Amino acid sequence: MSRMMSLLFASALQAFAAFVLIAAASAAETQTIRIGIIQPMSGNFAPYAQESEPAFEYVINKINAEGGIKSMGGAKIELLLADDASQGARTATEARRLATEENVAMIVGGLLSPQMLAISPVLDELKMPALSMWAAGSKSEYLYSLGFPYDRGYAATMANFLGWLAKEKGYPIKNVMLVYSNYEAGQLVNAALKERLPKLGFNIAGEAALDLKAADQTAAMLRIRSMKPDATAGLVTPRDGTLLHQARFSLNYNDAIFFGGTAGFSDTVLWKDLGDQIGKAVLTRNLFGMTGFSPAAKLESVRNIVHELKEKANLKIEVGQGAIQGAQSARILQRVLEAAGSTDRDAIKAAFAKVNIPPGDPDLYFMRPQGLAFAEDRLLKDSTGIVIQWMPDKSQEIVYPPEVATASPRPKS
């Protein structure tokens, strides 16, 4: 081969290599990352999805518009939404379909405790990484959750708050009745409260398990009234909370302090569901709610996301805890994919351990003094909860813990 031919051949090889690199870069830029979304868009748990899903999708669209996942060349996130109708068996079925037929890289969803228990064997079998917005526990080594843990999250916050009210604020609390929605999370938080409250000097006055299928909670409220507790405590769903507050209003029962977590006592949708008359009568009197979010938060990142969701996300309801859970889940998903740098499921699972959204980060939407990172149980290391009280203008004040409080708890009326 002549020297001229050699030079031409080398030049052609260089041009071809450059073409391959450009093509590869172009392919990376247009790559999509398929993410399965399982939400209870219908059924008993639908209020969770109706609030969280629009906020989740809004933040995902924003991530895509701002350049996608940069570690994968700007790959865009594609969401495949499935409705499990609040039924655990259907959650498992949809997870299997998304993993095997749709070939998603990861699953994200509402996944409350019943769905979490149902989906866990499927995740382990298929080695499918997943993120739950709500579950208070994880039974799969592939499932991570943003929910409060049953004991060190929900029960610890509730018990410590009642102890603080009694000892530091002089509230006359001795007998506590356990009032909770009768499903896995409510039952497990209830069991943890039964362990924690007596150690703080409280007596358990009785228990009232709220039937998830009940259309009215008057019977439960009559049982509570008959036990004459000083306070109540327990995990209550949005629907059960609405029915419980309606029953309290109809019976004009205000003797006890009503305290519960989370959405059934603290979510902003309660005013819409109850109406102003009932809302002002029961939510602002002898009632406190545990939550992970409040519009009263002083954190700049929280105020910014609330404002943005109100102005740009076209939500059909007020920004409450569900919307914040959805928005935060989207940011966690972004961090996981950036750390993984790949759609390989093992790489995505390993990336959860690398997630760290520190205090002061603009993507931190939870009020967690230590930021967001996952512990060995695959739930968040910092499980701090806050407690709010309602004001007549539908606003909230944070009363606990003291270091983030915006007001003092009102005296018992």
Show the helix and strand layout.
Blueprint: H1 3-30, E1 32-39, H2 46-65, E2 76-83, H3 88-100, E3 106-109, H4 113-126, E4 130-132, E5 143-145, H5 150-167, E6 175-181, H6 184-199, E7 203-210, H7 218-227, E8 231-233, H8 238-251, E9 257-261, H9 263-266, H10 269-274, H11 276-283, E10 287-291, H12 300-312, H13 321-340, H14 345-351, E11 386-390, E12 396-400
Parallel strand pairs: 1-2, 1-3, 3-4, 4-5, 6-7, 6-8, 8-9, 9-10
Antiparallel strand pairs: 10-11, 11-12
Helix pairs in contact: 2-13, 3-4, 5-6, 7-8, 8-11, 13-14
Please tell me about this protein's structure.
The chain is built from 14 helices and 12 strands. It is α/β, with parallel strands linked by helices and 413 residues long.
Relevant terms:
413 residues, alpha/beta, Rossmann fold, 3 domains, seven-stranded mixed sheet, five-stranded parallel sheet, 14 helices, 12 strands, 46% helix, 15% strand
Which ranges are low-confidence, i.e. pLDDT below 50, for 5 or more consecutive residues? 18-29
Q: Could you tell me the number of beta strands?
A: 12
SSE ordering: HEHEHEHEEHEHEHEHEHHHEHHHEE
Question: What is the gyration radius calculated from CA atoms?
Answer: 24 Å
The CATH class of the largest domain is identified as: Alpha Beta
Q: Helicity range of the residues? A: 40-55%
Q: How many structural domains can be distinguished in the coordinates? A: 3
Describe the sheet with the most strands: 7 strands, mixed
- In round numbers, the mean pLDDT is 92
Determine the CATH superfamily of the largest domain.
Response regulator
